[in-house]
Amino acid sequence: MNIVPASAPAPALVARYLAELGGITELVEPSIHVFAHLLERQQAAGVEGDMLEIGVFRAGTASLLAAGLREKERLFLIDPTQNAGVNRETIERFARVQPAQLVFHVLDSKAVSKWRETVLSPAVPMVRFAHIDGEHSYDAVYSDLDLARRYLIDGGMIVLDDIFNMNSACCTHAMFDYLRDQPLLHLVAMGYRKAYLCESRYVAGYRRFFAGLPELLARTAGLQVRLCFNSWAYERSYVTFDDCEPNAPHYQVIGKRFHRLPEALAAMEALG
């Protein structure tokens, strides 16, 4: 899959989202933009399929995801404590989707994973984007990753919440253990406590997206982030990103900072 550059970013969607749902969303503003652009790039690349969210709460994130659904795509929402009626109303009002496009499971995600053939039949998901923000125990996170991976389609992405949050350390522990056990799944990037994973054969396409993130967010949202390369093995290692000052270097390679992406890539090529 080749993630092609977007000719028209979606600042209008993000602006409307912040205006209408800014009071209930759990996403920080940079993550909202990243999600919107990733969904846009999936569409540009012809990646078609459903979406999945584990841990729905008040449907803030789910509403943003649903806004990216095409006519025959569905959003599966798994959360044992959610108010499905209220969440449905919130999502339909913002995303303007049809009722049949929203599939609610008011169940524990571990039970869904264990009994998936029964619970998810006949509406079996074909997931191109999964967001996991459910129970934060080690077993639950590992199970949620396995559930999302089982239904992930070609070119799909899994996003896991609360990475390197010391209040929920098991999220990170379970993620790295799962990646160890499933070598065909790869960690592409981490930023603002979110981890972005895809199958190894699609790493290059998504890596190009994240490599251009500082310029993209500065241009479309006025946000300043620094992208850090954490290994000389550019094509197989993950990148990280976080806030930085407007005039500060926006790229880092193993502690060395650069103002432009070509400079960072040249440094890795010289020493790789």
Structure description:
This protein is of the alpha/beta class. It has 2 domains: 11-222, 3-Layer(aba) Sandwich (Rossmann fold); 224-272, no CATH class. The chain is built from 11 helices and 11 strands. The chain has helices at 11-21, 29-44, 60-66, 84-95, 109-114, 116-119, 138-150, 169-181, 203-211, 213-221, 261-271; strands at residues 50-54, 75-78, 102-105, 127-132, 152-161, 185-191, 194-199, 225-229, 239-243, 251-253, 256-258. The chain has an 11-stranded mixed beta sheet with strand order 3-2-1-4-5-7-6-9-8-10-11, sandwiched between helices. Helix 3 (60-66) packs across helix 4 (84-95) and helix 7 packs across helix 8. The longest helix is centred in the N-terminal third of the chain and has 16 residues, at 29-44. The model is unreliable at 1-9 (pLDDT under 50).
What are the key terms here?
Rossmann fold, alpha/beta, 272 residues, disordered N terminus, 21% strand
